[in-house]
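yo

u said u wanted the structure for the complex thing, so here. seqs first:
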Amino acid sequence: EAQVTQNPRYLITVTGKKLTVTCSQNMNHEYMSWYRQDPGLGLRQIYYSMNVEVTDKGDVPEGYKVSRKEKRNFPLILESPSPNQTSLYFCASSRGAGYNEQFFGPGTRLTVL
Amino acid sequence: RKEVEQDPGPFNVPEGATVAFNCTYSNSASQSFFWYRQDCRKEPKLLMSVYSSGNEDGRFTAQLNRASQYISLLIRDSKLSDSATYLCVTNTGNQFYFGTGTSLTVIP
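structre next:
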């Protein structure tokens, strides 16, 4: 089954404790992206990757890191989480930008205390 | 200024009604346009792409007006299962921009 998986689905952590949210897709997509969704602000792009070893900042990259060492995986790293990073996070993949459908993972609900 | 703006609603309509949503975008360099559907904080899913000539998919019709920089979605003969949040999305360069969504509830 074609899908994007994210782990964990739910996470409660404390300020400053490094964490990684994994994202994996099995569709051989070149484009992958991370979004955060907050009430009243919609989905905002954090980082995106056009291909392996190519990553770029989206609109809200501060406090996040990503890597794209393999085509299928695109982990999101929070080196020192803060309460303002409490949010619902979605990973997505597609064949490219432009008129390509993005397939989203199920989301990760993160709470930083 | 937000890249994409939508009326958040909510829109509450009876079954069988026709409902229309509009969305405006600020960047004239935007290249591609979409409507996504999101159910209750689940992952967004593509409803339809929006092309310059307008396009239709069953009960759903999407229009794009590049001169006025707005996108519309028309839903005819609303079903209970259409209840969701509808997200307007644009693509500029390699980035995607989402509106905050318009909430629709179809009432029996």
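The CA atoms of residues 92 and 104 of chain A lie 4 Å apart. Chain A touches chain B through 26 residues (CB under 8 Å).
cya
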